[in-house]
Amino acid sequence: QVQLVESGGGLVQPGGSLRLSCAASRSIASIYVMGWYRQALGKQRESVATITSGGSTYYRDSVKGRFTISRDNAKNTVTLQMNSLKPEDTAVYYCYAAWGSDYWGQGTQVTVSS
Fold first, then answer.
1. Dihedral, CA atoms, 60, 58, 98, 86, nearest 10 degrees?
2. Which pLDDT band holds residue 18 (cuts at 50, 70, 90)?
3. Regarding predicted confidence, which is higher, 59 or 100?
4. What are the Cα distances from residue 54, in Å, to 8, 70, 86?
5. Rounded mean pLDDT of 24-36?
6. What pLDDT does 65 receive?
7. What's the rounded Cα separation, in Å, for the pair 103 and 62?
C-alpha cells in the first residue's frame, strides 16, 4: 500500500500560480504512473496530468502550457506547478498512484477567484 498526502492548495487570483506537492509513504520509483486529478463542485473527477516512471507526461488540453508535472523518486514526491490559473481551474485536486490498485490522497482545495 501507499499513502499519499497533498499540500499547497489555497486561494489565488486569476493569472496567479500555485504549486501542489504530493508526498508518498513509500518509494515511488517502482510506481509506474502517478498524477493529479481534480473534481469541481457538481462535476465528475477528471485527470489533469500524469507522469510515468520513465518521465513520460500527459496533460489534459485545458492545462497544456500552463501546468507542469514532475516527480522526484529520491524524495518520493510528485509536484504540479500551476501557472496562469483560471477560475475554471477551481476544484479539489487529488494525487493519484497506480500500483496494482489505484491510490488517492485526501485532496487539496484550489480556488481561483478575484
1. -40
2. very high
3. 59
4. 25, 11, 30
5. 92
6. 97
7. 24
> How many residues can be counted in the chain?
114
* Residue that is written with C-alpha cell 490498485 in the block: 101
3-state SS, the chain, equals CCCEEEECCEEECCCCCEEEEEEECCCCCCCCEEEEEEECCCCCCEEEEEEECCCCEEECHHHCCCEEEEEECCCCEEEEEECCCCHHHCEEEEEEEEECEEEECCCEEEEECC
Paired with 51 in beta bridges are 34, 57
**Residue 97: its pLDDT value, please?**
96
Average pLDDT of 54-68? 97
